[in-house]
Amino acid sequence: MLQIKRSKTEERLLEDCRKGDRKAQRDLYEKYSGLMYSVCRRYINEAEAAEDVLVCGFMKVFSKIDQFKNEGSFEGWIRRIMVNESLSYIRKNKSLYMQVEIEKAEREPDYTQIQDHLEAEDLMKMIKKLPAGYRTVFNLYAIEGFSHKEIADQLGISENTSKSQLSRARAHLQKLLVEAENYMNDKLMTNEG
Question: SS3 sequence, 30-97?
């Protein structure tokens, strides 16, 4: 069994949260809310809805904290709850699943040139531009590491739908990368001319 060394401070914080100590709960929320909010935003574009999911997620963290057995990462345990809460929100709002047809990228982007100018933050902005269904499957597969079977089970869709959504997400991202490359090339030409 994997045991992760925790600081005395974190152990004490978890123990106090298990006892229902409000200050400890607030401290835990303040420690992890920023990171967990960004997890929720990867799945939910609307800031207000992501905040609601975050709050619901932390309510679940506090009500189920006794289920965390100090095995594995506590942050990972919270992240799993936030992902599940985000997916639950998406399932309740089925209209977010509207599939959008996209045209094929006209050419393969030059990844070496894009890499010189593209930051991780820019890529996350591109992922946020994806339609909700694409973004959800892309996040679960590429970022969280779920299999298509796990994604299908989580979202109540078929494995083929998961694969299709991922394929479309990749094509959409490829199109956005080509647009970014064209923009950068135009900008370089303007600066040189």
Answer: HHHHHHHHHHHHHHCCCHHHHHHHHHHHHHHHHHCHHHCCCECCHHHHHHHHHHHHHHHHHHHCHHHH
Domain 96-192 in CATH 3.20.20.70? The answer is no
Task: Give the pLDDT confidence of 125-138 residue by residue, as tens digits.
Answer: 888 888 888 889 99
- The C-alpha R_g of the chain, in whole angstroms, comes to 20
Residue type, 148: H
Q: Which CATH topology does 8-92 take?
A: Rna Polymerase Sigma Factor; Chain: A (1.10.1740)
The amino acid at 57: G
Could you count the other beta carbons within 10 Å of the beta carbon of residue 188? 12
Contact 184, 114 (CB under 8 A): yes
Contacts of residue 161, Cβ cutoff 8 Å, sequence gap at least 6: 152
Measured between alpha carbons, how far is 7 from 15 in angstroms, rounded to an integer? 12
User: Is-above-0.70 flag for pTM?
Assistant: no
Please write the tens of the pLDDT for every residue from 172-182: 888 887 887 77
Residue ranges per structural domain of the chain: 8-92, 96-192
User: Do residues 33 and 54 touch, judged by C-beta distance below 8 A?
Assistant: yes
